[in-house]
Amino acid sequence: MLPLEQITLTGHLVRLEPLSPAHHDGLVDAVQDGQMWDRWYTSIPRPEEMAAEIESRLERQARGEMLAFTALRPDGTVLGMTTYYDWDPAVPRLEIGYTWNRASAHGSGTNAESKLLLLKHAFETLGCECVGLRTQWVNHQSRAAIERLGAKQDGVLRANRRFRNGALLDAVLYSILRAEWPAVRANLEHRLRNRIPG
Description:
alpha+beta
């Protein structure tokens, strides 16, 4: 079970709030920015599926399976969603995933800062020894973003999932260890330096 303390993580470019049904309209607006669902290799919800997606994540959160966040700009504009999941207290470790952001925010530094906030909380507050991330082999944009974080590739799970169109996809697994966190943090802070208002 995840340590389910509801928490808001705040940076300069992005704020991660606990997911709420009140975020529905903002999330619909965000997913329509660039038609984020229209990528066959992802599972981003369509606008008409957003209420069910929020309900599903909150049900999983109630069972202790995930801790779901909505990502927002400081002005309150909704960017997308992200989660902690797959908590293993014996290590301890967790994964960050089920993440998507509106297309116009790509390359803006908001995703990098979201990861900085999530990783910092995982390593420095929750005491994780390892944080995992995963994406699909064919999702080159996501793989490049994870690798820019400084995460190391652990392996590939072949034919591990079937998507809406019936295609079998391979998952690429990455991780960051506690010993690697200081370098990952320094890299993220350096990348964000020119994007944060002085």
